[in-house]
Amino acid sequence: MAAINKIGVFTSGGDAPGMNACIRAVVRSGIYLGKEVVGIRQGYQGMINKNFWDMDARSVSNIIHLGGTILKTARCMEFLTPEGREKAYKNLRSHGIDSLIAIGGDGTATGAEIFSEKYDIPVICIPGTIDNDLYGTDFTLGFDTANNTVIEAIDKIRDTAASHDRLFFIEVMGRDSGCIALRSGIAGGAEAILLPERDTAIDELIKKLETGAKNKKSSSIVIVAEGDKNGGAYDVAKRVKEKFDFYDAKVTILGHLQRGGSPSSFDRVLACRFGYAAVKALINGDTRKIVGIRGNSIALTDLHEALNLHEFKLEEDLMELSTILSI
Ligand code: F6P
């Protein structure tokens, strides 16, 4: 395999807190190890548009604490076509970029896999998404911060819910993943958690809320992942209210505020470890791998395996806890 000299780094898909800290780690690790690093703005779109930024150690000063991504992000339709990918390859080569580090979720990793199947540019992925839904890592970048954001919101809603004896349905992000709903629901002491991965019948939910009311619960909080099969929080609230009107019920949709904000200490350290590990992996001759953290150690997983061979599963013990502790 050819030596690595110039690493291209980009962020793609939904942004996540910690992406900036990770860009910083890639840039500084690369330079420390004698390589050049080029930032590619707007992800795959930036490869097609030659949106390149030759970075130095000072390019990433004062960003470790910032949410969002200084490299911007985009969802790029053109990269889905062979012509788009060829254009991207030619532009990368003409700028001297000989290796890539992709920071993003499963869409980003899928793009990297398809690209590297055809083209001779080694690529390492870093899991950056608030959804925590990638195989090969216990935690993705941004998940911890997003949970902290959600918990802060739940705590505030709990204050007003308890004061007014109300039932609140709080919708959190997770089109296909219930990770945020499950963790924030447990940490926020929710009465019920509705997840895309688990079917919850509305009648069952009503029964649970009725039992709570009989057991002297004067207010209740239900967390609904946006991808739950009953629909969003408004749909669930409407159907519950039709049959159960013991409480005055309200709905709060947290939406995109979950994607922003200063990364937590956990996410900043994770970002530093991921960035350095990705640079080291490229220099060691690895390609088509995704870095991750498993049992507090950095791990590399084959990209194809991570994307295709393993179904992501929520932790069974957390599922059980969500039932046991909400009586
Ligand atoms: O970043 C992941 C995610 O937040 C999902 O949970 C959510 O459904 C989706 O992105 C929404 O992203 P966008 O509004 O950018 O399409």
Output the keywords:
327 residues, alpha/beta, Rossmann fold, 2 domains, seven-stranded mixed beta sheet, four-stranded parallel beta sheet, 42% helix, 18% strand, binds 6-O-phosphono-beta-D-fructofuranose
What can you see in these coordinates?
The chain has 327 residues and is of the alpha/beta class. The protein folds into two domains: 6-142 and 263-309, 3-Layer(aba) Sandwich (Rossmann fold); 145-259, Rossmann fold. 42% of the residues lie in helices and 18% in strands. The chain has eleven helices and eleven strands. Strands 3-2-1-4-5-10-11 form a seven-stranded mixed beta sheet, with helices on both faces. Strands 7-8-6-9 form a four-stranded parallel beta sheet, with helices on both faces. α4 links the parallel β4 (99-104) and β5 (123-127). The mean pLDDT is 96. The structure holds 6-O-phosphono-beta-D-fructofuranose (F6P). The site of 6-O-phosphono-beta-D-fructofuranose has 9 residues, from loops.
